[in-house]
Design a protein that fits this description.
This is Monovalent cation/H(+) antiporter subunit G. The chain contains three helices and no strands. By secondary structure, it is mainly α. The chain has one domain. It is elongated.
C-alpha cells in the first residue's frame, strides 16, 4: 500500500513539474503579453494543484495536510486574481493583443 501511495505521489509531483516547465516555455515562446500571461496563470494553477496533491499524499501528519490545503486555497485565489490585474493594467496601458496573422488589434 505504501509503495502504491509513493508511486501516485511521485506521478503527481512529476506531472506538476512538467506542467510548470511547459508554462515557462510558453512564457518564452508566445508572442504578446496576454498569451504569455495566460500560459503562466493556467500552468501555474494546474501545476500547483498537482504538486500540492502529490505532497498531500506524503504528508506525515494531518496538520501538515491542512497547511498544504490552506496554501493551495490561497494560491487558487491569488493566482487568477493577479493575472486579471495584470491584464487590466496592460489594457489600461493601451497594449493591444496580437490577432491572427501577426497584426495588432
Amino acid at each position: 500500500m505504501a509503495l502504491l501511495l509513493d508511486i501516485a505521489s511521485w506521478l503527481l509531483l512529476l506531472s506538476g513539474a512538467v506542467v510548470a516547465v511547459i508554462g515557462g516555455v510558453g512564457m518564452l515562446r508566445l508572442p504578446d503579453v496576454y498569451t504569455r500571461m495566460h500560459a503562466a496563470s493556467v500552468t501555474d494553477t494546474g501545476g500547483m494543484i498537482l504538486i500540492i496533491g502529490g505532497l498531500l499524499l506524503q504528508a506525515p501528519h494531518w496538520l501538515i495536510a491542512v497547511k498544504l490545503l490552506l496554501v493551495g486555497l490561497f494560491l487558487l485565489l491569488t493566482s487568477p486574481t493577479a493575472a486579471n490585474a495584470l491584464a487590466n493594467a496592460a489594457i489600461q496601458d493601451g497594449i493591444k493583443p496580437i490577432l491572427g496573422g501577426g497584426r495588432r488589434g
